[in-house]
Amino acid sequence: MNWLSGMLIGLQEIREHKFRSFLTMLGVILGVASLLAMFALTAGIAASWRNTMEQLGGLERIGISDKQVSLEFADLAALSPGRTLADAEALRGIPHLVSHVAPEMQAGATLSASDGATVSARVTGTWPDNFTVSQHAMAAGRFLTDLDLQRGARVVVLGDAKVAELWPDEHGTDAEFLGRTITINGRPFAVVGILALYEREQDRLRREAAARGDKPPARLAMGGGRGGGRRDMFSWKNESVIVPLTTMYHEFRSGQADTPPLAMAKLDYLNFRVRDLTRFDETLAEVEKLLRGTRRGVDDYDFDTREDWFERMETSLRSTQLSGALIAGISLLVGGIGIANIMLASISQRVRELGVRLAVGARRRDVFLQILAESTAIGIIGGLLGLGAGVVLLELLGNLAPLESPPVIEPSAVLISVGFASAVGVLSGLYPAWRASRLDPIAALRYE
Amino acid sequence: MTSSPDAPPAVDLHDVRKIYGTGPDPVAALDGVSLRIDPGEFVAITGTSGSGKSTLMHLVGCLDTPTSGRVSVAGEDVSTAGSDRLARLRNRSIGFVFQAFNLLPRLDVQRNIELPLVYAGVSAAERRRRAAAAAAQVNLTDRLTHRPSQLSGGQCQRVAVARALVNDPALILADEPTGNLDSANGADVLRLLATLHAAGRTIVLVTHDPAVAARAARVVELSDGRVIKDAAT
Ligand SMILES: Nc1ncnc2c1ncn2[C@@H]1O[C@H](COP(=O)(O)OP(=O)(O)OP(=O)(O)O)[C@@H](O)[C@H]1O
Ligand SMILES: [Mg+2]
Fold it and tell me: Which of A228, B17, B99, B140 lies at a 20 to 30 A Cα distance from A145?
């Protein structure tokens, strides 16, 4: 008698009592279904967060922000020029650690297209490296070049949403907008590039489905072809109006009485990209050393890393997982008690059978194994049915309410869920199996 | 059947007592039984109801152990054996036929007959072969795929006999095997036992029926847990 033949006997027993076995498995089925759904939902959220984060620049993107100087050094604060282009130039000096540097100056401005609309916008003056630091992608044309920067060229790169605002009645290809001239605060700029539409994975899929003519689910349907008008975490990228930093400075900043020279001009943002994430801390330390120089020792800067963001995300995911696991755990516990209960009932119905098995030579451990294998089989089958139920559950959830992030069923989640179900089967069979193995053969044979 | 004098007795009981209950009035189901059965004997055990016949069979069949005294089966002392050793003896050395058939209702004839082989670790193919051979011996080759509920009482008992002999045990114990059968079917089963005896097996048969007992070479009569008569017929 081995584990396999025990299983086979168990399977036959389950086949003989299909409905009873199904009821027995219900707890396990629900437990596994909720476990799987929980894993899939959180994995989906994690995946879309990761995707979002990639698009926003990834972990490698670090911002240098201002910090209130502590009170005891308040009188020194004036010594520091603050965040200036000098910082950016300094960061360029350590290319082995910092791969890209993107200083930004911003200004509110009025944009106007002679063949389109007049809109207000926030114009960003920056370096070509901004393309990589902000993880931009081009839909048409090109991004800023070093030559643009040197010459202070009047060129502009527009975000997808801005194109939609400027030319609301045109639905042509992105390339059609290249070479047009718009004015920014009255000065003409040539449109040299259009940025790709940034959106979440699921929004892209939906939009593409709509474009193909598939009927989108009513609730999920959303506005026109371009992503204009929608507010989400990508808005700042989609609404970009990007010009060379030098152009920005000369056209919109200088000329006022107290304007500092370009090198000392205040920046609104200064972001850079870490070359090698494994040298993250080393890079920060080196950058800090440089900043202490440019800031004349005043501690008025801080780092915005995505690590905090990542940690917050992980914590919130973990708490979601925990509550899901709690529900699943309770279902599995109830399922386990159900299995134990039915196994006890089943052995008292089968005392005589067990007596016969003992009489023809079954050892106690054979009987033990048989009952244990049977409860394990119930657990495993319940687990497999639970997987199916979990998939159906996810499908239902997706149909009832649009999910922010599509669930992702990972193989590890499947293994863990079925593993738990099997473990529940084994554990809940232990006591009934022990009871069965203690049967006295003669009493069992006499049992009516 | 003759047996060599130096072979150990098939069954040897020495002053065996089996007391049931530990309360104020315990029942001595067996009260000092000594009995020796040689290999190849055909012994009938008779006695009134409650005289201790089944209790005796259970001890000989290694389903139970005595309260005191010594029980040997095929030369092996089983009075103090552990449950695994008893199970092994039941499996390899003893075939048991019960009055109530005791077939497993959800297994077909083939699988019922195979049952002892399952616990002997015999491969599935070999089990099938030997079960078919045993079924042939009891004339049930055409019923292998039937379940017990589809068989007559006589056929059921023949399945039970096939199961008892499938492991080729030296000792076959039958506790009132004809008790639930009509005389024709009873005679069938007795004929089978006689054939097995003729093939060299030791048979111990419990019966109420003097006519049945008369078919054995030796009759042992119990009363109140004691042997009151032990004679060749
Ligand atoms: N488990 C038990 N607990 C208590 N007493 C028992 C038990 N088993 C048997 N006895 C008693 O032991 C005695 C012998 O019983 P046993 O079954 O051996 O009789 P038997 O000769 O087989 O009778 P029958 O011909 O009716 O089958 C009886 O008095 C019975 O009541
Ligand atoms: Mg009896």
Answer: A228
What ipTM does this complex have?
A: 0.94
Helix (H, G, I), strand (E, B) or coil at B187: helix
Instruction: Please measure the distance between the N-terminal and C-terminal CA atoms of chain A and give it in whole angstroms.
Output: 26
Ligand 1 in reach of B21 Cβ (< 6 A): yes
Considering the entire predicted model, what is its pTM? 0.73
Q: Which residues are registered as beta bridge partners of A291?
A: none
What's the A348 CA to ligand 1 centre distance in angstroms?
Answer: 23
Strand partners, A443: none
Q: How far is A426 from chain B (nearest CA, A)?
A: 22
Which ligand neighbours the alpha carbon of B19 most closely? 1
Q: Which residue's alpha carbon is nearest to atom 27 within ligand 1? A: B49
Instruction: Break chain B into its structural domains and give their ranges.
Output: 11-232
pLDDT tens for A300-352 read 888 888 777 778 888 888 888 888 888 888 888 988 999 999 899 989 988 99
Q: Would you say domain B11-232 falls under CATH 3.40.50.300?
A: yes
- Count other C-beta atoms under 10 Å from residue B128's C-beta: 17
Q: Which atom of ligand 1 is nearest to the CA of B222?
A: 21
Which is nearest to A401 in space by CA: A167, A186, A220? A220
Residues around ligand 2, an ion, CB closer than 5 A: B 54
CA–CA separation, A408 vs A55, rounded Å?
20
Q: pLDDT, tens digit, for every residue of A150-176? A: 999 999 999 999 999 999 888 888 888
Q: Which residues of A touch B (CB under 8 A)?
A: 1, 5, 12, 16, 352-353, 355-366, 441-442, 445
> Are residues B15 and B68 in contact, defined by beta-carbon separation less than 8 angstroms?
yes
Span of A398-407, B123-132, B208-217 with lowest mean pLDDT: A398-407
